[in-house]
Amino acid sequence: MPELPEVESLRRVLARSIVGRTIVSVRINEPRLRRAVAPDFPKLVSGRKIERLRRRAKYLIVDLSGGKSMLSHLGMSGSLTYRDKDFMTGQFNARHDHIHFQLDDGNAMVYNDPRRFGLLKLVPRADLESTPELSALGPEPVSNAFDAAYLARTIHGRKAAIKNLLMDQRVVAGIGNIYAAEILFRAGVRPTRRAGRLKRAEIERIVDATAPILNAAIDGRGTTFRSYRDSSGRPGDFVTRLKVYGRAGEPCYVCGTPIRTTTLGQRSSFYCPTCQR
DNA sequence: CTTACATCCTGATTGC
DNA sequence: TGCAATCAGGATGTAA
After folding, report:
1. Closest CA to A97 of A107, A109, A110
2. Please, what are the domains in chain A?
3. What is the mean pLDDT of chain A?
4. Protein A160 CA to nucleic acid B2 C1', in Å?
5. In angstroms, how far is B15 C1' from A19 CA?
6. Which residue gives the smallest C-alpha to C1' distance to B12?
7. Which own/partner pairs from A35-41 qualify as long-range (CB within 8 Å, at least 24 positions apart)?
8. In angstroms, how far is C13 C1' from A171 CA?
9. Could you give the CA distance from residue A245 to residue A144 in angstroms, rounded to a whole number?
């Protein structure tokens, strides 16, 4: 379920505990994720030191000693949690704990994913940019590369709904269903609008709304709508600041009009029919 | 190239 | 209460 803010929050919290640690062993309980984890994964990861944690879009990249990086994506229901050997022992439901990373300080990191839509693979660091998962990604939404000129050029002539294109990782990388809804509310643009018909001013408002929404979500350590937890098991706070997502029928905070819901690209969409045109 | 849609899978919630 | 239908933060592969 994680979008960019959840993965970034995870990266920041997890980094404090695991950077500098060495992975002494890896146990695979269930290799069948969206694609199967390679059988030689444990052998190749064991003995490697964790040098750095990075994020690209919704991917977490764990740089290991020896020149390889672990590329991970949490899919809809994945989580990477830090298990303190003294503090958290026995407090977790171990169901769906698919991959267990034993660290040299006695603590552990566990990949848990009920729906198994996630990804864990090892990639030579030099090949990261060309690996299929990352090679076609659009710009980071919180970066200078994502500006009005870029977005205007990219969606020019497109007939798809703007919300679907904001969630298209090739257009801009890291936005999912929750934050697409929130960004469009802040921009005052209805999610169903055909992207190619947007005026320049509307495109500018979308771009201008993006970084504040995502940064505020990161500050709140992400959104816990149903089950997201950060690496320490703590829920995110941004749910209390959602303006439209999950608020069908409730009054718009700006104008009081009931929030509406509709379906776009098989995902539910929320918007204020008054504030968003 | 673009768009629409099914599909992978389990669990929580909703509706009758 | 019980059970079935519906929905869930995502990405991809196929077809049109």
Report:
1. A110
2. 4-130 (3.20.190.10), 148-271 (1.10.8.50)
3. 94
4. 9
5. 48
6. A226
7. A35/A119, A35/A121, A37/A98, A37/A99, A37/A120, A37/A121, A38/A121, A38/A122, A41/A120, A41/A121, A41/A122
8. 19
9. 27
Does strand C come within 7 Å of the CB of A240?
A: no
Is the separation of the CB atoms in A140 and A200 below 8 Å?
no
State residue A77's pLDDT score.
Answer: 95
Cβ density class A169-179: b for 16+ within 10 Å, e for less? bebbbbbbbbb
- Which nucleotide is closest, CA of A263 to its C1'? C7
CB of A2 nearer than 7 A to strand C: yes
What is the spatial distance, in angstroms and rounded to an integer, between the CA atom of A36 and the C1' atom of C14?
Answer: 21
- As ranges, strand C nucleotides with an atom below 7 A of a protein CB are 7-12
C-alpha distances (whole Å) from A45 to each of A3, A4, A42 are 26, 25, 5
Instruction: Say yes or no: Cβ of A42 under 7 A from any atom of strand C.
Output: no
Q: Tell me how far apart the alpha carbons of residues A277 and A274 are, in angstroms, rounded to a whole number.
A: 7
Q: Is any atom of nucleic acid chain C found less than 7 Å from the CB of residue A227?
A: yes
Buried b / exposed e over A201-219, threshold 16 CB at 10 Å, is ebbbbbbebbeebbeebbe
Helix (H, G, I), strand (E, B) or coil at A136: coil
Using left for φ > 0, alpha for ψ between -120 and 50, and beta otherwise, residue A188 falls in left
A244 touches strand C (CB under 7 A): no
Per-residue pLDDT tens digits for A85-129: 887 655 556 899 999 999 999 999 999 999 999 999 999 999 999
Task: Please list the active-site residues of A.
Answer: 2-3, 58, 267
